[in-house]
Every structure is written in structure tokens, then in C-alpha cells.
Amino acid sequence: MRILVLGAGGHLGGHVAERLGSLPGTRVLTGGRSAGCDVRVDLAAGSPALLAQALATAAPDAVVNCAGATGGDPVTLAEANARGPAALCAALGRALPAARLVHLGSAAEYGPGAPGERTPESAPTRPLAPYGATKLAGTVAVTSSGLDAVVLRVGNPVGPGSPRSGLPGRVAALLREAGDGPDAVVRLGDLSAYRDFVDVRDVARAVEGAVTAPGPLPPVLNVGGGRAVRVRTLVRALAGTAGFAGRVEESGAGSARSERVSWQCSDIRAARDALGWRPAYGLHDSLAALWAAVPPVPTAPRGEAAP
């Protein structure tokens, strides 16, 4: 089986490519803009015709789209998260209409959830920010394409290699930089929001299930931890994992999105039924793996200042 993973150089894409590469009899091809990719494609700017040619040459049995943008201005987000999936679907329709497409969406497409409740795939989508809105546009492009496709709406990823662009990775980096003395301080914004955290390795397992499942799948499946965790709880648990002896202060500028979306929790029963999938890693396992992978702060040679 040949599987093309688009965005394999990213955090989720790297874990997905590694997981799929361990399947017997499978060859994983990487796709993206960098010279090291097996298939050079630019979903955000490439024409569907050129994309179709590249796909036809690679001839994968399945395509996993992990490409996208989590930050940037609205135009950048729209190009990566909305235009990219639409161009990919158009290209697949021309070149490989029988190939299965697994596209990574986001729980941000739902917008604010009802406190105390889990959000099913049938819930209304009402994102409040450009990121969620552009991810939703990408989902609509995939689900209306007529392809053999499924969108995995991923919760808040956490685990080894979490980038600084996301809260768990940023907090881990700040804890490492602050040191472990009792006078160390890490300043963050308001941490009262609830989020559904899911281990990146569990996301990769869900992708594996979606790629290899026989027959058609539901158009959208939630992939999350299935429980809401207060962000403050995650930060304190990560500080404990790190052995941090200082203080965490909620005195910095808070996230406008957190203020407007105070609760997110995904109902993951449909993924269990369709893929036989459920999370295998608990939050503390994820945080331990995250902290173990955080690089140490460089130390300057004696007599020299640190950069």
C-alpha cells in the first residue's frame, strides 16, 4: 500500500508518517514544498491541474492531509486551511478518484461548547476566529467533494514534540527556560478555560484506522481525549512533571479565543464505532513524553555569555 502524507514535516504529520511507516507492506511518501519531500506540492498556491499531475505520478492508494496553518493572518490561514484542501480534492478528483483521503480538521470548527457537555459531530459549527472558520471551510470542501474521504476533527494535540506555537509546547519551553529554583516565575494568561487534549500518538493511530478501514466512513469523526481538562490543571501537572519549584502566575496577556471559548469537549463515540479507536494515552503520559522531549537550554562556556 502506498500512502502519501502531506505536511509530514509538521508536528502531527511527522507522527502520522512514522506510524503509517510501521505498517507491514506499506510505503509512505511525503508531500510538501520542501526539497526533501518525495512529492513536491504546494496546496496553498499550486494549481489543481499541476497537483493532479503530481498525484498521478506518485499513484498513492491513500492520501493523508496533515498540511495547514495554525497561526498567521486571515489570508495565510485561508490559503492553507481552506484553499489547500479544496485544491487537493479537485486534483484527486481528476487523477485518483478512488484513493481514500483522510483530512485532519480541528475541534475549533465547532466554536464554543456547552459547559459540561460533549460535542458530537452533528453539533452546529460556529467558529469564532479565522483559524476555526478556515478549517471549517476545508472540511466542507472535503465532505462535499464526492471522494472516499473522512475528516478527523482533532482536539488540542499534546505529547512529544509539541511545538511552541501551541499552549502545551509553549508552557514546556517556558518551564525549561525558567529553571528549577524557588524564585523562578512563569507568567501566563488566564488558564480557566477547558480544553479536550489528545495525545499526538493517539491521533496517528486514528489516522491509521481511517486509512485502513474497509468500506466508506462517516464524513466527520471527532478525535479527542473525550474529556474536558481545565488548562490550569494541565499547566500545574506539567510543572509537576518538570519538577518546577517556582511560581506560575496568570498575570500575562490572555488569549482572546480562550475568553470567548471557555469549554471544549469532544464526543468520541463515533470514532470508536467506525474505527475501533479510543485514546490509549492519559494526560500524564502525554505530559511526561512532552517534557522528556524538550531540549535543554544551551549553556555558555565558562567566561562567555549565553546567546
Properties at a glance:
Rossmann fold, seven-stranded parallel sheet, alpha/beta, 307 residues, Epimerase_deHydtase, NAD(P)-bd_dom_sf, 38% helix
Summarize this, please?
This is NAD-dependent epimerase/dehydratase family protein. By secondary structure, the chain is of the alpha/beta class. It has helices at residues 11-21, 48-58, 74-95, 130-143, 167-178, 200-212, 231-242, 256-260, 269-275, 283-293; strands at residues 2-6, 27-32, 39-40, 62-65, 100-106, 148-154, 156-158, 185-187, 194-195, 197-199, 220-223, 229-230, 247-249.
Structure description:
- The structure is a single chain.
- This protein has helices at 11-21, 48-58, 74-95, 130-143, 167-178, 200-212, 231-242, 256-260, 269-275, 283-293, and strands spanning 2-6, 27-32, 39-40, 62-65, 100-106, 148-154, 156-158, 185-187, 194-195, 197-199, 220-223, 229-230, 247-249.
- With 307 residues, it is of the alpha/beta class.
- The strands form 4 sheets. It has a 7-stranded parallel β-sheet with strand order 3-2-1-4-5-6-11, sandwiched between helices. A two-stranded parallel ribbon has the order 7-10. Strands 8-13 form a two-stranded parallel ribbon.
- α1 packs across α6, α5 (167-178) runs parallel beside α7 and α7 (231-242) crosses α10 (283-293).
- It has a single domain (2-293), classed as NAD(P)-binding Rossmann-like Domain (Rossmann fold, 3-Layer(aba) Sandwich).
- InterPro entries: Epimerase_deHydtase (IPR001509), NAD(P)-bd_dom_sf (IPR036291).
